[in-house]
Write a structure and sequence with these properties.
heterodimer; A: mainly alpha; B: globular
Chain lengths: 336, 440
């Protein structure tokens, strides 16, 4: 019984939240990796693009709700998502035309792109603060729980509750669909193949008649899908605030680099590595130990390795370890 | 216009802006000399930072996005150097905390030693993990009770170890040293890899340094702030009680209170100018020395410089540490000026990004340009908010105050800064990448 209780606790406080967060990070990291492999720079505006997509979704959701359109048990935001993706992708393609295209034509150094993306980041941040202010916004509606804590306790007869929120299940389902589609697109379609060719060897790709402008545009479009979905899922699961979205930048970069910059599979693996490390390291293990260890070995402290205030340090530590020992990441990305 | 004429023109423009601020309250100006000198003081501190960043970016092409972290370390230096030690707290847990930190450092040292001494293989991996995990638990068991004891000592006014009680001016070089230490750690990790890795790594370390200062109450009182830092200038109360000073103030037609705040601010301005001039002279000397030429050669063509036998990574580490140390000094100056350490005020826009805009707008690679950029952009940064309010007023003049646009415009005026600074950076990068005063 104690063992079962411990297992339920682990599922409730580690496996479910970390898997959800990992899926969100993986989607974010996929975007970073795509931009890196096609456009060849680290996009610092990524976190704020996620926020922009979320803000647009929040706006459209509110509009739908005011018209009385909802999705029943599912969050209305899901219905607003496709429209928000279109808006975000258009904004990104526009940004590319106005900002990055010029440097691409000039074949500017990577660091100039990074700097320009920093400028884009702050402008986007200004825009989202103008549109939605700085406060936390909760935009989830519909059924809150798939498995309710009390119902589970009654059903199982265990001391420990288990809760599964709709948004958590939804995150994983949507993420799986998006990732499956992305891999199908990259591996099976002509455009996807030309993108991979462009990423592997730009000159050869140009020589074989691939239109670089089209590749870049499709990339931004896909990045728009990934960032908006990631941002909306994160916002549904937790809540939206410009500051937390800015702080997602570091874990997202860490995920992409751990997996190997430029490798889509690596980005997904990296997302889960970062998410699980963050949750495991900041979790208070005392109660779990109470179930598993014999009475005379009970710990006195909280058994928390790191206070939650230092969550950001986890992604940073992972980043540093990777940079020191394996700069190409788990899946051998392009970076040296 | 020749370069030197252009410099004179721009500096004259800056001077006029500061004079207008003091003389007239038309449009966005306040008409107060007090505000004018306050803006000047922060501009001077920002100029020191801009010189540090220019050293890294302009001389060596290193992209440091963690200026905020080095500035915050400077702020922390003021607390640990100049505050009086809290005796009770030291008795309660000082030794434990120091021992804990020592154990932490020893663990890391031992790990590094093991990894260099032992041959590659499973044994090394096992030893590394055992030492790290074991060291971590010993560290926590020694460190945590100490922290608890310290934070329990008179939490409303103390709850931290205090400082060393040394003169506050000494904290400026200490801030430089702390920042240099952090820069060494970052540089060792991220330099020599892809250029954007340094950017990501510095972004991370800055967030972590600020998180530490916000959360480690025993060190910095965290969110409770440290107030009443000692000043390097006279106390306003003493001045207002001094008959000679009151008489002098009367001669300028000012009340003693007004005169004393202005006097103190001018005192800071003098101190900051002194630091700025020293840093500027050193930076210029360095630039025209063989070392400076080598740095620029490395920046312009790393491969060629490497072929000439230059150790690029080591030189980059050197200049990265130097530039960060200057940011640390400036951070200490800023906290001294504020008279308090408020960890929650550190945000990347103000402390990282703004300095970048200053360097890029002024002209990267040119120290005078960075200086000019610092004055212009700081002035703009202060004034964007009143400009935003003015814009909100003008653009919503005919509208109902409850209109969506009117509400958003009025709410958004404070956030205009983010947007404007981003826009300025993009415009300058695109249309005038060499800046107002280009490198010669």
């Amino acid at each position: 019984m104690d063992f079962l209780n411990a297992l339920v606790m682990l599922t409730n406080f580690i496996i479910i939240p970390a898997t959800t967060y990992g899926a969100q990070l993986a989607l974010g990291a996929l975007g970073v990796t795509l931009i890196y492999s096609i456009l060849r720079f680290s996009n610092f505006a990524h976190g704020d693009t996620m926020a922009l997509g979320t803000v647009v979704t929040i706006g459209i959701t509110a509009l739908f709700q005011s018209w009385g359109i909802t999705l029943g048990p599912l969050p209305t935001a899901l219905l607003a998502l496709p429209f928000a993706i279109i808006v975000t992708s258009l904004v990104m393609i526009g940004t590319d035309q106005v900002v990055y295209k010029f440097y691409r034509a000039k074949k500017a150094a990577t660091i100039v792109f990074v700097m320009a993306s920093l400028g884009v980041m702050f402008m986007t941040n200004g825009v989202i603060r103008f549109l939605a202010g700085v406060k936390d916004i909760n935009f989830t509606d519909g059924e809150r729980f798939l498995i309710q804590a009390r119902a589970f306790k009654e059903w199982s007869g265990l001391d420990q509750p288990l809760a599964l929120r709709t948004t958590q299940a939804l995150t994983v389902v949507v993420a799986v669909i998006v990732v499956a589609w992305l891999f199908w697109f990259l591996n099976r379609t002509r455009t996807g193949k030309s993108m991979r060719a462009y990423s592997d060897n730009e000159d050869l790709a140009l020589l074989s008649g691939i239109n670089p402008n089209r590749v870049v545009m499709v990339t931004w479009l896909i990045v728009g899908i990934l960032t908006t979905t990631a941002g909306v899922l994160y916002g549904l699961d937790k809540s939206y605030s410009p500051f937390t979205y800015f702080q997602l930048l570091l874990p997202t970069f860490a995920a992409a680099i751990v997996g190997g910059l430029g490798s889509p599979l690596g980005a997904i693996a990296g997302g889960f590595v970062v998410a699980y490390s963050e949750v495991v390291v900041t979790y208070v293990w005392r109660a779990v130990a109470g179930y598993v260890l014999p009475e005379n070995l009970q710990p006195e402290g909280l058994l928390q390795l790191l206070s939650t205030d230092y969550k950001i340090a986890v992604s940073f530590t992972i980043l540093v370890i990777v940079l020191l020992f394996k700069p190409t990441g788990i899946f051998k990305g392009q970076s040296v | 216009m020749s370069q030197s004429n252009r410099v004179i023109f721009y500096f004259a423009l800056v001077a006029i802006l500061f004079l207008l601020e003091g003389l007239t309250n038309f449009w966005i100006f306040t008409g107060s000399w007090d505000t004018s000198v306050s803006i000047l003081n922060m501009a001077l501190v920002s100029a020191v930072m801009a010189l540090g960043v220019n050293l890294q970016w302009g001389y060596a092409g290193l992209f440091n996005v963690g200026i905020m972290g080095f500035t915050a370390l400077g702020g922390l230096a003021v607390v640990i150097t100049s505050m009086q030690p809290v005796g009770e707290a030291w008795e309660a847990g000082g030794a434990r905390v120091l021992a804990g930190l020592l154990i932490g450092a020893l663990t890391i040292g031992l790990t590094i030693m093991l990894r260099t001494k032992l041959p590659k293989g499973n044994a090394r991996a096992v030893f590394t993990i055992v030492v790290l995990v074991g060291g971590f638990f010993i560290y926590r068991s020694v460190f945590d009770p100490g922290v608890e004891a310290i934070e329990a000592v008179n939490p409303s006014v103390a709850g931290y170890l205090g400082g060393l009680g040394l003169p506050v001016l000494l904290s400026w070089p200490v801030g430089g040293l702390l920042a240099a230490g952090a820069a060494w750690i970052i540089g060792k990790t991220a330099l020599g890899l892809r250029s954007d890795y340094l950017a990501i790594a510095t972004l991370g370390i800055a967030e972590i340094i600020v998180a530490v200062i916000k959360n480690e109450g025993w060190l910095s009182r965290g969110a409770k702030n440290v107030n009443g830092l000692p000043r390097p200038v006279p106390n306003p109360v003493d001045l207002q009680a001094d008959p000679a000073f009151i008489e002098a103030a009367a001669r300028f037609g000012m009340s003693p209170v007004e005169a004393s705040t202005l006097y103190i601010k001018l005192g800071y301005a003098l101190l900051f100018t002194a630091v700025l001039v020293i840093v500027l002279i050193l930076a210029q000397l360095a630039r025209h020395s063989p070392w400076g030429r080598m740095m620029r050669a490395i920046r312009d063509n790393e491969t060629a410089a490497r072929a000439m036998g230059k150790n690029v990574t080591a030189r980059h580490l050197q200049i990265f540490i130097l530039g960060s140390a200057i940011c640390g000094i400036a951070g200490a100056m800023m906290t001294t000026l504020d008279g308090q350490l408020v960890p929650t005020t550190y945000n990347p826009l103000r402390f990282t990004f703004l300095i970048w805009v200053m360097v890029i707008v002024g002209g990267s690679g040119n120290n005078i340009g960075s200086l000019l950029g610092a004055f212009l952009i700081w002035w703009l940064y202060v004034k964007v908010e009143p400009m935003g309010q003015w814009l909100a007023q003008v653009s919503t003049a005919g509208l109902d105050p409850n209109n969506w646009f009117a509400v958003r415009m009025t709410d958004a005026a404070p956030h205009m800064r983010l947007f404007t600074m981003g826009l300025i950076l993009l415009l300058v990068l695109r249309f005038n990448p060499r800046g107002l005063v280009p490198e010669r």
